[in-house]
Amino acid sequence: MNSTNQSLYKKIGILISVVAVLAVFIVTFAEEKPSPATVSVASNTAVQGNDTSVQSTSQEPAVNVFNKTTSNSSTSKTTKKVTKSSNLTATRSTTYSDSEERDEEGFWVKPSTSANTQTAPIATAQTQTPTQSQTPPPVATTKKYLYKNGTYTADGPYNTPEGQVAISVTITITNDVITDANVTSVSGDNTSIRYQNKFISGYKQYVIGKSVDSVQLSNVSGSSLTPAGFNNAFASIKVQARA
Fold it and tell me: Which of 9, 117, 129, 143 is the most buried (most CB within 10 A)?
């Protein structure tokens, strides 16, 4: 039973192979045979125009004409593509340098030179200006002096064994300081005038440059009575200069 089936299957396979070969042959023959419409049109054209070139064209199968046109078109496109590729290749070869590379289609391309570099942000130093404490400006205080600036004169009487005599005293005061002084005789006998002259020759070192309230004379150059007359005159001057 099995051998019978195998023989049957073998025959069926052969038959199928034969049918397939015939089908291929028929299709090939049908493609090469010109259609009646094409032959009719070609014949009419040959009769009307008596053109041998048209007759030869009408005898060529329609399929071949189409194939030729398609082949010509493909050839033209291929030629254009090759020409374009050649032009692009020539253009790029003249534009780019030798360090460039070619891509998969043969065109020159610039090599990638971009590096993954990140620019670090510039740190801006923030300086804080220390706030200065707003101290109020010092208030100008005017010093109050006890005596008014100026030059003052007074007579200074004093007692001697011969009687009462006197001297004249002139004092200049600036900011409670004696800046100048002058003493002259007013009255007295010869002995009194002699001691007055001794006083006049040596008193200034104890007066000039001294503060007003610090001056109090007692004995100057051997004269002990004339300084009393100076002190009396100076007391009057202080009263005059009191502010």
Answer: 9
